[in-house]
Design a protein that fits this description.
Length: about 190
């Protein structure tokens, strides 16, 4: 997605540890007009999939998921991140290793909000090693719902998550795929799509 790549080049900051900081427009301050274009693009790519629910993970996925959901006209559910000891009864749960914080946490979704009738699209801001998406996919599987695919705003293509998930047969659509980034020169190259 041209507009997104241009914005990443203009406002993205490369940090150590292969982290791309995009908090000027994506996950701290949020550019709502860009989000609208992102939402429309996800809709264009998944409009035939019969999506009736969008699932994301707190916190950064929520804004993108909500704006995207307006185009699909479906509800958004977000997985909550929880400490193990606080997990209450009627929930689907799995463990996820955090890319940015390095620790393992539980994610939960109430059983009330995912069922075998659902056709679920996953949405998230980043894809790196794929742990967050795998966790969300596991919650969908536990519920008996159908996973129709995953929409990612920025995939870091030099990390293994995207290719692993595609190999598993998940319909993955990433709006920008960063092929490489150089902290010293600030250069970002994107995969041709
Ligand atoms: P994964 O589970 O695929 O390794 O990482 C995905 C999660 O880690 C995303 O939900 C995102 O919040 C965070 N993340 C991974 N890489 C980056 C990055 O380069 N920049 C930012 N801002 N977040 C990232």
């Amino acid at each position: 997605m041209q507009l997104l790549e241009e914005r990443i080049r203009k406002d993205g900051i490369i940090k150590e540890g292969n982290v791309l900081k995009v908090d000027r427009f994506l996950n701290h301050q949020m550019d709502i007009h860009l989000f609208e274009e992102i939402g429309k693009e996800f809709y264009r790519r998944f409009s035939d999939a019969g999506v009736n629910k969008i699932l994301t993970i707190e916190a950064s996925g929520i804004g993108i998921a909500c704006i995207t959901a307006q185009y699909f006209d479906v509800p958004v559910v977000f997985a909550k991140k929880n400490q193990t000891k606080n997990i209450a009864g009627d929930v689907f749960t799995t463990q996820v290793e955090s890319y940015t914080h390095g620790r393992i946490y539980d994610i939960i979704v109430s059983k009330e909000f995912l069922s075998p009738n659902d056709r679920v699209l996953l949405i998230d801001d980043f894809l790196a090693n794929g742990r967050a998406l795998e966790g969300l996919a596991a919650l969908v599987e536990s519920s008996g719902a159908t996973l129709v695919g995953a929409g990612i705003v920025i995939e870091k293509g030099f990390q293994p998550g995207g290719d692993e998930l595609r190999k598993k047969g998940i319909h993955l659509e990433s709006l920008a795929i960063v092929e490489s980034m150089d902290e010293k020169t600030g250069t970002i190259t994107f995969r041709e799509q």
